Amino acid sequence: MSRDALFDDVDDSLLKSGEKSEKSTPPSGSGVRGFLQFNIARDYESPVHWSQMMTRADLSAQGDLGNGIKWKLGARVDYDAVYDVTNFYPSAVRHDQALNFYLGENYLDIGAGDWDFRLGKQNVVWGEMVGLFFADVVSARNMYQFILPSFDLIRITQWAARAEYFKDDFHAELLWIPVASYNQIGVPGAEFYPFVPPAVPGVTTQIRNEEFPSRNFSNMNYGLRLSTLKNGWDISGFAYSSMDIEPTFYRQYTAAPQPTAVYQARHSRIDQIGGTLAKDFYSFVLKAEAVYTHGRHFYVSTPGDSNGVVPQNTLDWAIGLDFALPAETRFNAQVFQRDFFNYDPDLISDKHESGYSLLLNHKINDRLAAEVTWISSFNYTDWLFRPRVSWDVERNWRVAVGVDVFKGPPLGFFGRFADRDRVYSEVRYSF
Fold first, then answer.
1. The pTM is what?
2. What's the confidence (pLDDT) of residue 31?
3. Is the Cβ–Cβ distance between 339 and 379 less than 8 Å?
4. b vs e for 313-350, b when ≥16 Cβ sit within 10 Å of the residue's Cβ?
5. Is the dihedral of CA 253, 258, 259, 260 positive or negative?
6. How much is the pLDDT for 219?
């Protein structure tokens, strides 16, 4: 199932609680806030190796200029010492992933009666599911570590102008992205590079650098989202036209000096229509979303195909239930599916690709919590298992340890990383 990201930490739902909650800003300058985080991971499947020695520093500040104008600035630096301490990865991977600087949310908020305007680099959260990104079609994702980091580390902000109208229980949102960001997938040889082409006898393989859309008017993104709250039902619908944040790998053959299959990641123009709903039934919360996508291209493995891809229109949908159980326990279950229209039999995926996710989180005491995540396909034996224990050592210090286990066929969403099973630890200081 060629999806970018599926499931994330339990705090993901808090970050998706709605646009109005994102607007909260202190009445004056709030000083610098952020965190320092240290991650170390070791793959225990052959070949055994260190896969991460990451240090992250995240800083942000926000405040109020008066007259209805608010501001926010943020940035993050990631340094992964695994590329300097070990020689397991190619030099191209070190150059791409050892040291990176990211702009976080950097914007101005301007309030004018029932209207709010946000100008600058920002996150746009349209989805309702816990950790699922079907309706979250706007923001790109950092996929250097696949779906394993926390939600706040995966999301990549977009340069956007957003106008929002609030009236009673009605909310309208207009969005324009003049310069888009795209998923960061890394380069061949990286730990979680998403594409491993099938071997063809007598044909060598070459992967070119990713081709990004040119910055012009025709490649700008824009969308409209409407939502309302009626009798406890939170319902929304949206339309969005964009250059696809997900790359598709195109293929061509060259005959000289030897037969070679040349692959390159490119981005197509797509149009999407979707909607979400959520309802609190006291003992549980129901959430659902669906997105119809027109114009996306998908890889086919048939050697004789001219460019290795075919256009396919798809419908992605998901339904989830979230339960707050006794003894400070939370259980979340979700079912999702992708349906292909005018299905091409040469696709790697089945016509109906479906799966499910389960999350169980239990707070053992005031400082210690345990969590287990399971994501699996209904179509194949393809799954991800993630047990994790976190400990709030002090007010601002959190320590976590866990295991990530991948299983499935080589072309499976998780099975392609079947030799990436790992143990990891994490230390985070927030200020």
1. 0.90
2. 83
3. no
4. ebbbbbbbebeeeeeeebebbbebbbbbeeebeebebb
5. negative
6. 96
Average pLDDT over residues 83-93: 97
| Beta bridge partners of residue 310, listed in sequence order | 298
Q: How confident is the model at residue 74 (pLDDT cuts 50, 70, 90)?
A: very high
pLDDT > 70 fraction of the chain, expressed in percent and rounded: 93
* Angstrom distance (rounded) from CA 370 to CA 329: 10
CB atoms near residue 424 (< 10 Å) = 20
Q: Show Cβ contacts of residue 307 under 8 Å, excluding neighbours closer than 6 positions.
A: 250, 251, 252
User: In whole angstroms, what is the distance from residue 10 CA to residue 358 CA?
Assistant: 11
- Residue entry with tokens 């993050």: 76
- H or E segment at 412? none
CA distance 59 to 164: 27
How far is it, in rounded angstroms, from Cα 106 to Cα 116? 16
Nearest-angstrom CA–CA distance, 242 and 367: 43
- Work out whether strand 329-341 and strand 106-112 pair parallel, antiparallel, or are unpaired: unpaired
Measured CA to CA, the distance from residue 44 to residue 51 in angstroms comes to 10
Distance CA 336, CA 124 (A): 22
Q: Give the position of tokens 């007010």.
A: 395
Helix, coil or strand: residue 63: strand
Residue, of 2 and 26, whose pLDDT is higher: 26
Q: Is the pLDDT of residue 130 over 90?
A: no
- How many Å separate Cα 229 from the centre of its chain? 27
CA–CA dist 114, 420 (Å, integer): 50
Give the CB-side neighbour count of residue 261, counting CA atoms within 13 A: 21
Task: List 261's β-bridge partners, or say none.
Answer: 205, 253
